[in-house]
Request: fold
Amino acid sequence: MDFVDIIFVVFALIVVVSAFIVVFSRSIIRSAFSLLFTFFGVAGLYVLLNADFLAVTQVLIYVGGILILILFGVMLTTNVVSVEIKTGTLQTVPAAVIVAVLSGTIAGIFWFTEWHTAPAREGPTTKALGTLFMTDYLLPFEIASILLLVALIGAAMIARHERGTEGGR
Amino acid sequence: MSVTGSDLLGILAVGIVSVTALIAMLAGVFLKNSARLVMWLGLAGMAGAFAAAWGTYPSAGTAFGGMILAGGYASFFGMLILCAGILTFLLASDYLRKEGVEYPEFYVMVLFAVSGMMLMSAAADLIIVFLGLEIMSVSLYVLAGFMRRREKSIEASLKYFLLGAFATGFLLYGIALIYGTMGTTDLAGIALRFASAPPPSLFWVGAGLLLGGFAFKVGAVPFHMWVPDVYEGSPTPVSGIMSTGGKAAAFAAFLLVFVKSLGGGGAKVQTLLAIFAALSMVTGAVIAIAQKNLKRMLAYSSIAHAGYMLTGLAAANQLGESGVLYYLVAYTFMNIGTFGVISLIEQAEEKRLEFSDYAGLGLRQPFLGIVMSIFLFSLAGIPPLAGFFGKYYVFAAAVDAHMTWLAIVGVLASVVSVYYYLRVVVFMYFHEGPEGAEVISVPLLGSVALLLSAAGVVGIGVFPSSILSLTGWFF
Amino acid sequence: MVLLDYVPIFIMVSLAGIFGLVLSKASEIFGPKKPNPEKLSTYESGMQPIRTARERFSVKFYLVAMLFILFDVEIVFLYPWAAVVRELRLFGFIEMLIFVAVLLVGYVYILKKGALRWD
Reply:
């Protein structure tokens, strides 16, 4: 086990343990804050994969944005501290069976697949990404702006105030 | 690399729709009471895009370095989706006024949804499939909850969003695994590798997840749970475009990935599709019988129709594939038409949506009665209307592919379905309407839309070759 | 090894974590604790709290956070472009112009709709 492996295990543990807390914690605030560590751990894993730009994006968007959104979402609910987020447990057995089969299959196949590993690319990836965005992936890049725009109007539409028949104030 | 004129020509139709949406948005905020204006603007834009799709139809190829399909298949689906969009616009304006939610944003979101559907059906790369799907879905989530004061509309939006986001996650995970095993997201590249060597089992996990995502979007069993609540709660014109344009786009991408790229996917995938198809046909047809609400009945019928279309995919032969395309055209016209009549009869506060509200309608309002009967007969699959030929092609394809059992299940499900479609007709013509029932004035735009849909259903039913000659060379 | 580049970040994150933990624990351990009812009230020398602080937030917070994320994503797209813009010259500039113009339409929309106005 060399140094990088140890770092990987540390980050993987951070991700898995905090993800467990997210799911099993009784307080949704605690869940939301635990998610912070999950996101950070994933960013660390990206670093280990030499995906530096992705790691920064992860911190910028997930830690800096999505998490705030989730916290606001939590605060939108009336009961912050002790919300019973578990729904009725009628379907426990089928759900457990399905989850076990699915994750078992995926884990098994991951285990037996012969992975082709590309040679690790050293150095920052930002420039290469920029070039790809502007050449091969030009169309998806522009379409992404439309997608962002749709999300923008959608958010404004859903959260609009409706007074009388006057729209969108 | 630079962008050439042929690249731009390749995305001309979808580009026109997107730019129209942007202009419409600006017009919507800067001009007061601009809903009508935005509607006409959108209609003009979609008509222009239709002309562009028609014009580029003969020159099939790809654009932007193999990112997106141009002409041919893409133009065909572009025209189909634009038809759905135009009909939705025509039907929506009076409906929105009746419900007191006539905002320009409605039209803007429909335009964006249409551009997303067009992108998805023209995808030559899994990334475009994903982006198109997301643009379409996000627009539809918002449109489903457009009537913010109606509890059912909010419920529809939330359910669609939660389950849809989940399905998108499946799809994206599938794309990631396929990329991981094939080293590319380009559909042509995947096809090359798939043909040259058997892919590792991880690829099949990815393909399975992708299949789940598509099955969700077309509303096939076992990924159908969202359909009834969402179609029932959404504004009726939105249910119309969701069930037709959305389904067409999802099937277009489905065909591109599983038929064009993976060559049907092999016997196992076909068997799986056949099982999905059979379950959808039976579930949809049987549960639809018990419905009292017309929108809900149509939702279950839509699940059944997804099953019929999947039959063509499961057969994976040339007849089945052009059969699916024909079916999609037929379904678009007949289903938007049916939802259109419902949106006219429906009153604010979700009233007049039950079977009994249609009692005596055929005699009271001959026009609505006749067009509704045409749509329902076509949905039931009665010759010589379009619905019949759609079913005929996909069932014949199933028999050709040695899946006679599937064709038998399909025919039985169709027989069951005749009951609930004709029940509406029976109510319209053989039940006495309530005393002094008011005669609904049919708005001009709405009746134009209904006439166009009815003409489509009859026209392509009498001349099925008009569609088949357009689609015959795709596969 | 590339990981060496991340050592400063690691040091900073660790220092920040240690600093926060040590300070909060230190005040807990060393601070004098003489509680009385007056001291335990919400505002020690001010108004009586009139109702619970745990109220529902306005949906506007959510909307603002949502808009923030969307423009955050836009910036993420800007960054790799900025790294190569010199090599791409006018072509890259026009591409980004289209990208930003589309989002600008969205910005104008929310501005005109008053989604950024607070009252």
